[in-house]
Structures are given as C-alpha cells and as structure tokens.
UniProtKB/TrEMBL annotation:
Naturally occurring in which organism (per UniProt): Didymella pomorum
Top-level division of the source organism's lineage: Eukaryota
Name of the featured protein: Uncharacterized protein
Amino acid sequence: MEKEKALQANVKLNSLQRKAQPKDKELSNIKLEVAKLTYSTDREINKFKDKFGRPPTLGQWC
C-alpha cells in the first residue's frame, strides 16, 4: 500500500515536471532576449558617451 502511494506520487511528480519544462524554456528565451536588449542599449549609450563625453539625457534617448 505504501509502495503504491509512493509510486503514484512519483508518477504525478514526473508529469508535473514535464509540464513545467516548456515554461522554463520560454522563460529562458525571455531572459536571453532581455540580455540582448540590455547589451545593445548599453552599447548605444557607450557610443553616445564616446562621441559627446557624457551620457544622453532622456529627451535625447527617446
């Protein structure tokens, strides 16, 4: 009886883990996209700093 319950719980846990994996992959893709955007934004700010010697103001940036 105990062994049967443990087996059922393990099967349920495995199915839940499989269901969670696509979301983890989607989250990973979102994190990668945010990292790319952050990197490109930082590069643009640094280009502006190199050209003008100061960071851009909000009006210049938008």
